[in-house]
Specification:
Blueprint lengths: L31 H23 L5 H8 L3 H4 L1 H24 L1 H20 L4 H15 L2 H11 L6 H29 L4 H4 L1 H15 L15 H20 L9 H23 L13 H30 L5 H28 L3 H16 L10 H27 L7 H40 L6 H16 L4 H39 L18
Length: 540
């Protein structure tokens, strides 16, 4: 994509150059100080919004006690944030074109701060669910707008650098979220999981208000706003997200609500696609999918989201359920993943810039898949060092794949499509993550039950398990236990349950690996991407 193809206001304006029509064939000069400060402030806000998805994960018991919630209700503290957020992410493209990126971002950040304070002050679970839902919906615009700025405000030769920064944010935020949340709860209280957003948010507001004027809105888009399309989109996305979030817990279609919401999601999705393809002023520009690289890139983004969130889900689950690690111990073990991603970012950016992005994308998915497959033989004794190589390989692979995918997805789109496309890309990542988590949670539950049933069916007279049970019964009798046979059965059952859980986790790691290997093959279907020329030597 040549510089001349970009509108003047998309490349940023220097303070010394008044806005006006650009000279044909020439790009507007870039004020690098303003661009990096404004973009940097937006990136901090993006990190804050993504972090808040997982920051409560390690502190749910304390929150449950603080607001008097039941075990079923407390899970909604995360779900209530995610469901409305998926509606705002694609809607943000339209609002950004209508109001301008700066105004939308400032409104989103302000609302996010206010809702964070109200969530921290919650005295009941109902109040917390409501404020968390509003926090997710309003703050959702901070995620895709950063993505759009990276591919419109930066000249082509600098977009990979912006992609590296975003890749670090998208991968690190969910990784460090539970760790940071656990420590904040221990040091201060669970309310500071939300109050911490206030000083950070005020810094973001100042930076974006001062340096974030990257484009202008188009008020004429307000005419003929598609309210019907918005309603259908909300019903479709919220139903789908609920099914993905709650389906595994409710045994999927055996629950009538999950079944009906699945039907609603399917019908709503069909009506939504029809409406966006036929309405003169669509909320979401689905025509971007006519671009081959965008379509392949969105699919790969969904897979990378599944790999990112899936790996971040499996490891803490295993360490908590099998090794009984505390939140801080889980965070210490997970740090390898975050460090590997952080250190790989600059290298991945150079690889994507110097080669055909399809190659690092394929290699990245292969590495991520190999890292996950290394854990297929996991045992109950695995801890920090055993998972270190798994996390390092997966972290390196996910980072390389994600940055290459961003470049392939957006680099061949016309500039006027970038804002809407950025919302679709982020929606694909979130949806891919939700699908991945739902599949993995279901796999663990089902495989654990299958392995346990298989083990119990083999407990026959003369088997090793029967001999162990007899020995334990005798030992319990010596200890004076009231029901030695029952205590022995309970002990053996617990050991078999643990072994079945370990085997189920091994299958889930393998499932994630297979998904990454398939993605590596599919990534080669993208069309070749011509990289931008290197930046001039005097660029700052």
């Amino acid at each position: 994509m040549a510089d001349a193809a970009l509108p003047a206001d998309s490349l940023g304006k220097t303070e010394s150059s008044p806005p006006g029509p650009a000279t044909p064939g020439a790009a507007a000069p870039v004020d690098w100080t303003k661009l990096f400060l404004g973009f940097g402030a937006m990136v901090i806000g993006q990190f804050m919004a993504i972090l808040d998805i997982q920051i409560v994960a390690a502190s749910l018991p304390q929150i449950q006690a603080g607001v008097g919630a039941s075990t079923d209700q407390v899970s909604w503290i995360q779900t209530a944030y995610l469901i409305p957020e998926v509606v705002m992410i694609p809607l943000s493209g339209y609002l950004s074109r209508l109001w301008g990126t700066q105004r939308l971002y400032l409104a989103s950040c302000t609302g996010f701060i206010v809702m964070s304070v109200l969530t921290g002050l919650s005295t009941s679970i109902d109040m917390m669910i409501l404020t968390r839902a509003l926090q997710g919906f309003i703050g959702g615009a901070m995620i895709p707008t950063v993505f759009a700025v990276a591919f419109t405000a930066f000249p082509p030769e600098r977009r990979v650098t912006a992609s590296v920064i975003m890749g670090l944010i998208v991968t690190l935020a969910p990784t460090v979220g539970p760790t940071l949340g656990g420590h904040l709860t221990e040091w201060l209280s669970w309310r500071w999981l939300f109050f911490i957003n206030v000083p950070t948010g005020l810094l973001v507001l100042f930076g974006v208000a001062r340096w974030g004027d990257f484009d202008k809105g188009d008020p004429s888009l307000a005419k003929g706003f598609d309210w019907f399309g918005l309603a259908v989109m909300a019903v479709f996305l919220m139903s789908m997200q609920y099914v993905l979030e709650e389906g595994a817990k409710e045994d999927w279609f055996s629950d009538s609500l999950i079944l009906w919401l699945t039907v609603v999601a399917v019908l709503g999705g069909v009506v939504f696609v029809w409406r966006q393809m036929t309405y003169r002023n669509p909320i979401v520009e689905l025509r971007a999918f006519a671009n081959r690289n965008f379509t392949v890139g969105v699919l790969m983004t969904a897979v990378s989201g599944g790999s990112l969130f899936g790996g971040t889900f499996l490891l803490p689950q295993f360490l908590g359920r099998v090794r009984h690690y505390s939140a801080s111990e889980v965070g210490t073990t997970m740090v390898i993943s975050g460090l590997s991603m952080f250190l790989t970012g600059p290298i991945a950016g150079r690889l994507v810039r110097k080669t055909d992005p399809r190659i690092p994308m394929c290699v990245g998915f292969l590495l991520a898949g190999f890292g996950m497959y290394m854990a297929h033989g996991v045992t109950k004794d695995w801890g920090f060092w055993e998972f270190a190589s798994v996390q390092a390989c997966r972290g390196v692979g996910v980072m390389i794949a994600m940055i290459a995918t961003q470049q392939i997805t957006m680099s061949t789109l016309p500039p006027q499509m970038v804002k809407n496309a950025s919302g679709l890309v982020n929606l694909a990542r979130n949806t891919g993550g939700a699908v991945g988590l739902a599949l993995l949670a279901t796999s663990i539950t089902q495989q654990t039950a299958l392995y346990y049933d298989d083990m119990t069916s083999k407990v026959t007279q003369g088997s090793a398990a029967a001999g162990m049970m007899a020995g334990l019964t005798e030992r319990m009798m010596q200890l004076g236990v009231a029901d030695p046979a029952g205590a022995a059965r309970k002990a053996v059952s617990g050991m078999m349950q643990q072994q079945a859980t370990v085997l189920a986790f091994g299958d889930s790691f393998t499932l994630l690996a297979i998904g990454c290997f398939i993605a590596a093959a599919v990534s080669l279907l993208a069309a070749p991407v011509k990289n931008a020329p290197p930046p001039p030597s005097d660029a700052h």
